Amino acid sequence: MNVKIDSIHFKADSKLLDYIEKKAKKIDKYFDRAINLDVKLKLESNGQIKDKIVEYVLKVPGDKLFVSTVDKTFEAAADEGIDSLKRQLKRFKEKKRGR
Question: What percent of the chain has pLDDT over 70?
Fold first, then answer.
C-alpha cells in the first residue's frame, strides 16, 4: 500500500511523519488489497485553542473510505483515525463477503 502524507499550511517534522506512516502501515494487516492511503495534516485555530486535524482517504478496489479526526495533538488524532479506519474496513469486508 502506498502512503502519502501532506501537511497543509505548516511543515511537519520527520518524527511526526514517521509516527503516522508507521501507524498507517498497520492497515495492511486488516485489508491487504488497499491501493493507496492519503493522509492530510491540518491546523485549525479557534481563538486560543489550536486543534489538530488528521484526515485519511483510503482507496480500495471499487470504493474510498474517509475518516477525519480532531484532537489536541496530531499523534492522538492519528491514533483515533486509524482505529476508526480499521472499523470501517471491517464493515467494508463484511459487506463484500455478503455479496
Answer: 97
